[in-house]
Amino acid sequence: MRRPWVMALGSVLLLLVSFVSPFSYLPNPLGLYHLVSGGYRYDPHSPLVNRFATLATPDPTPTLTPKLQRLIGLTGLDPLDPERPLVGYRVREIVTGQRPWNNADYAEALVEFRYAGGDARSYGIPVWQYGEYDDGVRRTGWRYTGLDRLFADHLALPDLPLAAADAELRPGMPQLTPIALDLGPALSGGWGSVLDDPRVRARWAPDGRRFLFHVGDTRAGGALWTASLDGAPPRQIAEHALDAAWIADGRLAYLRCQAPCPFGGRFELVVADPANGAERALGRVTGRTLAIVGTAVYLADGEALWRVSLDDGATERLTPLGAETYRSALAITPDAGRVAYGCGGDVCLADPSGADVLHIGLGYPAPWNALSGTSSVTPLPFPAPTAIPTTRLTSSLASLTLAWSPDGTRLAIAAGVYPGGDRGPELWIVDRAGRALRRLPIGPDGTTGEPTWMPDGRTVILTTFPRGGRRIVAVDTETGRVTDLSQPRWDAFAALAPDGERLLLWNGRGNFWLAPLMRRTAAR
Asked: Which domains does the chain have, with CATH numbers?
């Protein structure tokens, strides 16, 4: 029989090597368990931490602290506040092992941010790539943090001047909305210093009170949610969906699939009513992008334009499109009399019957193989600060989105490019006859989001993604004036309200904000 003092001594030693530094740096059963299981959660300020469990994924607090200190006194969007400067912070918890791959190369710090006036919000700040690296000075530690994007200088870019205080159009002070959408893994796209994929796409409902959110890797089938400004809990509509759009009566239509959604496959077209959760499948269709006009859904694939009735699901094959259709680009006029779609690296216009086909040459090589579904261009893996490339290459089309004006007389074509080419992103304005009315540069490089027309049919709002930043761009199609509406440390995506008076803002880091759009009042 063991003596009590031996058992007591063993217990004390076990506690020491399990929780008390520096003894807990020694190999111990609890630490081994956390290393094998791939996860550990602890308070970095507590004296009771199993340091052996942190050897593979060291405490990121020393890396984050000087960066957090630099944010004191600043404003912005998440994790900052647009109106109240940051006055304090505290690292509450460190979590490791939250990724099923490369766990030793990733950790997350739960940080409480305190703002002037007494309010506080908490955010999970990721860090990644631990080890030695050389950025001009040899360093050892965490190379990237979710705070890095906040320190980029907010400068006017070529072809993209910042909005002055007396600008014709500028955003007002953003206000926090009650939308409580759990973004989950999609947050990595918001914090990452190398990703400008929004991972969360938002579309306003026609009533201007509700939203459709597409969350995750939308190219492979992201989750579909609806939420409203009244604070009601968000509702998940689908786990995997390719594209979705609102119907005028408040319902929505979407393409449902099994992730990963295959290129060139068939998908289920579904009509859903977010008010009561009712759904109706209209049948299986091809095409990855849909457009809705009245009581019909239009889809484009590599073969033709298709129209599906929202009433009975009847499917009709309209005009042939050809094998080089750029599948993400499709727009129908409000009167359903004119179709715009991507054709190779250009844009084509046609009547739904297939008559009067026009080809608008944008001058880019075809970026997409409709049969294999693979890009012919490999994007750069990491962005660099926006600058003139050292090597000039032929620009390749990286994004193409289309939108007709409210009266259906003009088409906005937003063309984004991969970095390193001899052309930057452009916004084209063409009429129904295919005549180019405007061809405007909207930045030095990068891709673009969807253009949205204001109700006056004069101004187009869209988000652009130059290397190292995100910009909210307003284009006056009558004067050709291009203005950058973004503000320091917003780093935000934007969606224009149907009334043209508000912007929904988010940067993928947790919250959604509503900012008024303010027009300059003419002097009397």
From this structure: 22-151 (no CATH), 169-376+396-519 (2.130.10.10)
